[in-house]
């Protein structure tokens, strides 16, 4: 599969405090969905923001390589980036009603990229806007085109955002927790819509989520982030059924709503936030049951493991004692 996006050794830092992203490398094939998962604060959104060069000041990013199709995202001028965002890259966020401009109709917000990126006349953009609204499953599209954000439900607003994102005919859709604010039925509809559009248009998708249940419905490959690092990456099926990293396994336990012997719901012990302060050894070690066992603790505390092949093509993990070696059942 030809790669659409290649990111090598991406790091993000702030003038104060430890690095926010540390040596993140990703690739997304044409027409592929890569899901990035991890707890709040692990660096998922910062990864996406770095790609489209929209990091909030005073954060700065550096990478060895960052390419999308034929575009070098590291060297693109601000003007080029303006046309890549909304053109080659469409973006969906968690709070669709907040992301829509409250002063413009839904239709005007879809027509804008049609005119800007596809050079359509006013009347052609108006017609295509209605087609796009119909295409993303919005009933009465002519009427909805005249609605403002406050007149839309969360699910309809996210469909409008999908129409805005697709208007520029992107090769990559970045979807940052696009269903987190929606109720379960609407969430399933929006996931189905994203999957259908991806198939129909042959787009690639960078899908960001904290929820492995959601991710399992849509991802071809999964990258697991912890404290600014990718700790495991590989084919979705393999990550979900045969994880190598104890953190991935812990996320799966949480998503399955597993209970412990006392009948309590499983939760990962400790705080994710403090891991970034760990500069020596594995960042997950304080929360990792395997690392807490006496003979292993020494190794995990003294050197950070590298991201290495698990033995299956394309599956890598960053752990001294990968789970498949310990043969612990999931
Ligand atoms: N403007 C900022 N200045 C400094 N640090 C920031 C800034 N914005 C975010 N961070 C830090 O960057 C880290 C990664 O944040 P990011 O938003 O990427 O996490 P995330 O994995 O997307 O979490 P969530 O699911 O909550 O959005 C966090 O520790 C956060 O505190």
TrEMBL record:
- As recorded in UniProt, coiled-coil segments are none
Can you give the residue ranges of the ABC transporter domain?
5-252
- UniProt keyword RNA-binding present: no
Top-level taxon in the UniProt lineage = Bacteria
Query: One GO molecular-function annotation for this sequence?
Result: ATP binding
What keywords sit in the KW lines?
Answer: ATP-binding, Cell membrane, Membrane, Nucleotide-binding, Transport
SUPFAM superfamilies according to UniProt: P-loop containing nucleoside triphosphate hydrolases
Main site of residence?
membrane
Q: Where in the cell is it found?
A: Cell membrane
Stored PANTHER family: DIPEPTIDE TRANSPORT ATP-BINDING PROTEIN DPPD (PTHR43297:SF2), OLIGOPEPTIDE TRANSPORT ATP-BINDING PROTEIN APPD (PTHR43297)
Annotated protein name in UniProt: ABC transporter ATP-binding protein
